[in-house]
UniProtKB/TrEMBL annotation:
Gene3D superfamilies per UniProt: Aspartate Aminotransferase, domain 1, Type I PLP-dependent aspartate aminotransferase-like (Major domain)
Record Pfam families: Aminotran_3 (PF00202)
GO molecular function, one term: glutamate-1-semialdehyde 2,1-aminomutase activity
Alphabetized InterPro entries for the sequence: 4pyrrol_synth_GluAld_NH2Trfase (IPR004639), Aminotrans_3 (IPR005814), Aminotrans_3_PPA_site (IPR049704), PyrdxlP-dep_Trfase (IPR015424), PyrdxlP-dep_Trfase_major (IPR015421), PyrdxlP-dep_Trfase_small (IPR015422)
Protein known as: Glutamate-1-semialdehyde 2,1-aminomutase
Alphabetized SUPFAM superfamilies for the sequence: PLP-dependent transferases
């Protein structure tokens, strides 16, 4: 194969001298696959190029935002225009309202939107608002769901925490952690038991409606409807963390796909079109509890900054077209069918889990329903598979506990190349 990653390795060695672990987010380290991370020089369409000049077909999409591919001309033009006017003013701009209006149009359960700078800020603020609004302290979260790195939510979290094998995190006090009750995904009796015992103390239940941060797992039939009805019964809020699924699974995210209206929704990734952004949103009576109208404080120097708003608006405008979702579905279907055929032909102990344009190849023969099942996957096989794919020019998330993303920039030929590489990798692992 003879691919060289020497410049990336040199850059990583240098970075480690000045940046903890050489990365500014642990998910970027290739710890679980036991190699140095690639340093990226540029991206175009569906492709990434590393410092060594290698080209990759990309399924990471900057962990979700780049649904249109890199350097989409409309996003680029919007950013250039805004840059010429100024990148941040710390004062209201009309583009913030325009983006909020488009989000409302896509998601009928939403009356008001507050912009922040990351998914972490979005979920942290949504939790504070839920506590302030209900006057209750406890929250229920689902094992293996990741909602960013705010203290209350860093309990049994997936993604980087799971990849590194960290259970909670030092620095999160036991007083904070004990207000977070954790239940397994897809387990109605566990939720029922928690609400029977603590219902009057629970401010909110938060989840990824389709999980991405323990790999892609679909909610079982009726699970989300059950969560909607039990939270209503106990007057707790239902928070859908759609940082990953928002504007990806459908124009209106998982709420449109499963026809459920959450009380609060958190966004990130796609609504920033590749710029740092997040948002929390919901019904008027709840959102009006936020300062300056309400007593729950939340703020941000760069919140709603015009560069991020323009990139997000340009991205959502592109997605305001059902044909785009049709195309995503066709691309996803083509890839899934090819990989499933390979698995069957090689009788390989793996299965593909897919919802919309998100998928994970689990190294487990049995269907994966929750975090426990993911932990029982063959992580060693995943690591070898990852390296074999990378050597063939396919860039995947470097962990079994992550989602792969399809972008609109992918061509059928890219998918065919990916399917062929998948066959070679699985065949090599089989022997
Ligand atoms: N919520 C979900 C579902 C996520 O996938 C992520 C990040 O991957 C977050 C929240 C945190 O977002 P950010 O990394 O922008 O803080």
């Amino acid at each position: 194969m003879g691919i060289s990653w020497s410049k990336s390795s040199q850059a990583f060695a240098r970075a480690k001298q000045s940046i903890p672990g050489g990365v500014n987010s642990p998910a970027r380290a290739f710890t679980a696959v036991e190699m140095d991370p690639l340093f990226i020089e540029r991206g175009t369409g569906a492709y990434l190029y590393d410092l060594d000049g290698n080209q990759y077909i990309d399924y990471v999409n900057s962990w979700g935002p780049m649904i249109l591919g890199y350097n989409h001309p409309h996003v680029l033009a919007a950013l250039k225009d805004q840059l010429a006017k100024g990148s941040s003013f710390g004062a209201p701009t009309e583009v913030e309202t325009e983006l909020a209006e488009l989000i409302k149009e896509f998601c009928p359960a939403i009356d008001k939107v507050r912009m922040v700078n990351s998914g972490t800020e979005a979920t942290m603020s949504a939790i504070r608002l839920a506590r302030g609004y209900t006057g209750r302290d406890k929250i229920v979260k689902i094992e293996g769901c990741y909602h960013g790195h705010a203290d209350s939510l860093l309990v049994e979290a997936g993604s980087g925490v799971a990849t590194l094998g960290i259970k909670g995190s030092p620095g999160v006090t036991s007083n904070t952690a004990c207000e977070t009750i954790v239940v397994p995904f897809n387990d109605q009796p566990a939720v029922e038991q928690v609400f029977t015992e603590y219902g009057s103390e629970i401010a909110a239940l938060i989840l990824e409606p389709v999980t991405g941060n323990m790999g892609v797992i679909a909610p079982q039939t009726a699970y989300l409807k059950f969560l909607r009805s039990i939270t209503k019964k106990y007057q707790s809020l239902l928070i859908f963390d759609e940082v990953m699924t928002g504007f990806r699974l459908a124009r209106g995210g998982a709420q449109e796909l499963y026809n459920i209206a959450a009380d609060l929704t958190t966004f990130g990734k796609i609504i920033g079109g590749g710029m740092p952004v997040g948002a929390f949103a919901g019904k008027k009576e709840i959102m009006d509890y936020i300062a300056p109208d309400g007593p729950v404080y939340q703020a941000g120097t760069l919140s709603g900054n015009p560069m991020a708003m323009q990139a997000g608006l340009a991205t959502l405008k592109e997605l305001n077209d059902s044909q785009k979702y049709q195309k995503l579905a066709e691309l996803s279907q083509q890839l899934a069918a090819g990989i499933e055929k390979n698995i069957a032909e090689l009788d390989f102990p793996a299965h593909l889990s897919k919802v919309g344009s998100m998928f994970t190849l689990f190294f487990s023969k049995e269907e994966v329903k929750n975090y426990h099942d993911v932990q029982n996957c063959r992580l060693d096989l995943f690591a070898s598979y990852f390296k074999l794919m990378l050597a063939q020019g396919i860039y995947l998330p470097p962990s079994q506990f992550e989602a792969n993303f399809i972008s609109l920039a992918l061509s059928k030929a890219d998918l065919e190349k990916t399917i062929a590489a998948n066959y070679q990798a699985l065949k090599q692992l089989r022997t």
